[in-house]
Amino acid sequence: METDSLTRYSEITEKNRREIVLLRGSGCKWRRCTFCDYHLDFGPDKDSNFALNQKVLKQVTGKYGKLEVINSGSFVDLDNQTVQLILDTCIEKRIAEIHFECHWMHRESVAALRKIFAAHGIQVKIKIGVETFDNQYREQVLRKGIDETSPAKIAACFDEVCLLFGLDGQTEDSMLYDIETGLANFERICINIMVENTTKIRPDSSVIDIFMKKLYPIYKDNKRIDILLNNTDFGVG
Ligand code: SF4
């Protein structure tokens, strides 16, 4: 994947309005999800990652008071200088709410991150990719690496959840269950529709049709739900 041509700054102007940046870290430490190839956006060199992240963070204006940071992995994969610069940017631009991503395996690092930002009155929201609450499908087919089956226990360290729809075997009922379980246990959910990528997992157009006809009309205006019909719909990537 040619990662230097990626768009790394954008604004989400609907629902939970926020700026969003795609930063570069040392790479996802799980890297086994069978549907994922965006973990290829990483760099082993802290200094060059920081140089890139510095340029991207300069574009943040603070206009919505909220910023989402994604980095094709978890916040723990960002170098310390970048985390400090994110904090400094929030303080300088009066950003009161910051969103990060985190894999289940790093959940014990979440509390310390919240504390660092809370010391400056900034609220941290952490998003976990669960993809589905069908545990067997999630672990045997998608290989997410979440060894917990209770949605409430998964949600204990996290605020927001990503779901992945448009996969072979999913049904209207299974997607409905995932959405309602997500809404019952998390503040917000983000639905990603599977798109063609370099992995062997293919989007299933009949499942996507079911989602679009039956579920999209019901949930599209729900302010607690982001729906990405294409994985670049947030304007980055
Ligand atoms: S945890 Fe996220 S970045 Fe890592 S392999 Fe899975 S989906 Fe990709």
How would you describe the overall organization of this protein?
Strand 1 and strand 2 form a beta hairpin. The chain has 237 residues and is α/β, with parallel strands linked by helices. The protein has one domain (9-228): TIM Barrel (Alpha-Beta Barrel), CATH 3.20.20. The chain has an eight-stranded mixed β-sheet. The protein has helices at 46-57, 80-92, 110-118, 135-141, 151-155, 172-185, 205-219, and strands spanning 9-12, 18-22, 66-70, 97-101, 123-131, 160-165, 188-193, 225-228. It is 32% helix and 19% strand. The termini are close together. It has seven helices and eight strands. The structure holds iron/sulfur cluster.
Brief overview:
The model has no long low-confidence stretch (mean pLDDT 95). The chain has a single domain, classed as Alpha-Beta Barrel (TIM Barrel). By secondary structure, the chain is an alpha/beta fold.
